[in-house]
Amino acid sequence: xxxxxxxxxxxxxxxxxxxxxxxxxxxxxxxxxxxxxxxxxxxxxxxxxxxxxxxxxxxxxxxxxxxxxxxxxxxxxxxxxxxxxxxxxxxxxxxxxxxxxxxxxxxxxxxxxxxxxxxxxxxxxxxxxxxxxxxxxxxxxxxxxxxxxxxxxxxxxxxxxxxxxxxxxxxxxxxxxxxxxxxxxxxxxxxxxxxxxxxxxxxxxxxxxxxxxxxxxxxxxxxxxxxxxxxxxxxxxxxxxxxxxxxxxxx
Length: 251
Description:
78% of the residues lie in helices and 2% in strands. It is an all-alpha fold. Strands 1-2 form a two-stranded parallel sheet. It is flat and about 65 Å long. Residues 1-6 and 247-251 have low confidence and may be disordered.
């Protein structure tokens, strides 16, 4: 049965389709993790680059303490690379699973929505990698120097910090996609978003303070700032959508 056929499926068939999505996603993830494992050294060099851009030599700051740390690091790098490379395929599999439940007029939005999801996630990751991480690392190193401490981090802790930051920013940059979906199904309107600006600022600040892996104000503002800009973009996008797409075409 093709994706665009309208024949209804039973509950068991939907479960089988969902199982297929999960199996294919896991399969792609295994492949991308395997490829990432083969290029773990190159990926690790990329992850160490923010430290170098902060003016530090990774060889003098990063170290390992446990015998099995190299194995754990290899697995960690492979998993991170696998997730990032597998993401577009996983989005595609989810889209093909949802297509049969949509009407023809709704299906044309699936590709733009999931493409936007991938682009926004990568935009958040790249923004964090190039704009935030070097400055944040520099602040913490200078903080150590102010206290008179010598900076010496384990590579495992450093990778946890960098990966958490990248994932947090990638996920937070999905805000426009979530807002547009809520607008598409009639839960949020551009007027509601516009009237709720003051509340949105407070919510964004609290949310950024909770999810950022560091307690410093710099990281919080570097996350809250782009999120508020995205919120303002959502107001304009929903306003434009409400005037170009009749409500009758919504879900």
